[in-house]
Write a structure and sequence with these properties.
Layout lengths: L10 H4 L2 H21 L3 H6 L1 H11 L7 H33 L7 H16 L2 H12 L3 H24 L5 H8 L4 H35 L8 H9 L3 H29 L1
Helix pairs in contact: 5-6, 5-8, 5-10, 5-12, 6-8, 7-8, 8-10, 9-10, 10-12, 11-12
């Protein structure tokens, strides 16, 4: 009776030399990055007590301040909804132009993707700062910023989904003489409608968070009050702003996750 022998592994595989080398390189790169960026980890340890002091000052929120931030809080949510909706309206046709599997020339979908790439490279805060100089301080600037951000994000998610659809029904309709509008409406949209709605809700979640930060550059919403309370060292009021933002985002996330599960 023959017994099978366990094949011998090489020294490199036996002692995981490749993995150790990769980890060592990552550690060296991490330490080198800390050095060239001037990051001092000891500052975190030496200032950890200050973090506790700050939390202590925020532990007694001034709830009377909530009446002052209610309208900006509502405005923040409105900005997110409007910005996401406007961006989605423009993102849908852009996604169809950028999808490679639809009947477009290289120039059409190549140009579309190039434009979308440029839009996505613009950080929201930088874009908001530029738009504040154009449109002035207020929710209009924030809404436009979120609409542009939503346009870039949703269009990319949309055209990636479009490229995964089954083109069999579309080709059959095209062979029978259907127009491009009929093909999109009857053969393509039913396959991706649920995912489109899911991406819309996800972007709305992101925009609710982003709209809070945009107030720092004057783009409306709750961020302006957050900045004011921190600059004035009114941490009891800052705690109210943070808790209101947290509660709003939490509610939006719960509703969005519920709706996305229903759409799947």
């Amino acid at each position: 009776m023959h017994t099978s022998e366990v094949p011998k592994r090489s020294f490199v595989k036996k002692y995981h030399i490749k993995g150790i080398i990769v980890i060592a390189i990552l550690i060296v790169l991490f330490l080198y990055s800390l050095k060239i960026c001037g990051v001092d980890p000891s500052l975190f340890v030496s200032n950890i007590a200050q973090f506790g002091v700050l939390i202590g000052q925020m532990s007694n929120p001034d709830w009377s301040y909530f009446s002052f931030i209610w309208d900006p809080l509502v405005q923040t949510v409105q900005m997110a909804i409007l910005g996401t909706t406007i961006g989605t309206i423009f993102a849908i046709p852009a996604a169809f132009l950028a999808a490679r599997n639809l009947d477009h020339s290289m120039v059409v979908h190549g140009t579309s993707r190039f434009v979308l790439d440029i839009v996505r490279t613009l950080p929201s805060l930088l874009l908001a700062a530029i738009l504040v100089a154009i449109f002035g301080i207020g929710p209009t600037t924030g809404t436009i910023t979120l609409a542009i951000f939503s346009f870039g994000m949703i269009s990319k998610l949309f055209y990636e989904v479009l490229e995964t659809v089954d083109m069999g029904p579309a080709e059959a309709m095209k062979a029978s003489g259907a127009s491009i509008i009929q093909i999109i409406r009857l053969a393509i949209i039913p396959q991706i409608a649920g995912q489109f709605c899911s991406f819309f809700l996800y972007t709305l979640e992101v925009n609710v968070r982003s709209s809070t930060v945009l107030g720092y550059v004057g783009a409306g919403g709750l961020g302006l009050y957050l900045q004011q309370t921190i600059d004035e060292f009114n941490y009891s009021e800052t705690a109210v702003v943070i808790l209101a933002t947290f509660a709003t985002v939490l509610v939006i996330d719960i509703l969005s996750n519920y709706l996305r599960r229903k759409l799947q």
